User: Fold this.
Amino acid sequence: MIITNLEYIPGYTIVSHIGLVQGSSVRSKHAGRDMMAGIKSIFGGELLGYTELLHESREEAVERLQQQAQSIGADAVLNVRFSTSSITSGAAEIFVYGTAVKVNQE
Amino acid sequence: MTFNLISFAVLLLIGFGFGQASERRHYRSIKKREEQLAGLAAIASKHPPVDRQYQQYLVCGNVVVASDYFKSFLASLVNILGGRVKSFESLLDRGRREALLRLKEQALQQQATAVFNVKYETVRVGGRVTTIEVLAYGTALVPQSN
Assistant:
């Protein structure tokens, strides 16, 4: 499965367009991490706990996108985009979407 | 009342001291790594050359950075009169550059020669103190020898 945010794949031709596929993941941080981050934000700097949380969350969303694409028989997902929205101060939704297509190697 | 004032002053001092130090440290590390990774091109073009085939990987780098107590206070002062909030500009700048560096590091692990269609996304992640997440993502291309 090729996942890319380009609009075509060099060396491949698109044979059919299947449709939009998506994956999302909503995660919140646990209270301990939240408290540490609160203290850290007096000092400034990177909040590693949140960076990791959002990174994991993004990986999960991409995995779900991939599963959905596989289940409808796609070979590749093109023009993938990420979108993040903080729903409340404790949780964020990661949303990833793209176009599922069937491709042929030239 | 006096206790409040004292704790406010202490928080400001802590924020100023640690915040400035960590920002300087961060900028030093950013500059060093930017030089190391300068050979790998990360560009915003959507159209890679079509004369050969590539392995493609979606790569992303993200970072969550918080401003410190002192910066937030400065920003709230500027907010009254309006104008450039320099303390937040540097925060966002650091976030973007760090995110791009992480993207490049990930691309290099896959032995990519270039990253195409790089996009940035910035989100505010709650909390009383301004905390932002910057995401940079793109397609890492590894040329195939055929």
Remarks:
- Helices of chain A lie at 31-43, 48-71.
- Chain A has a mean pLDDT of 89.
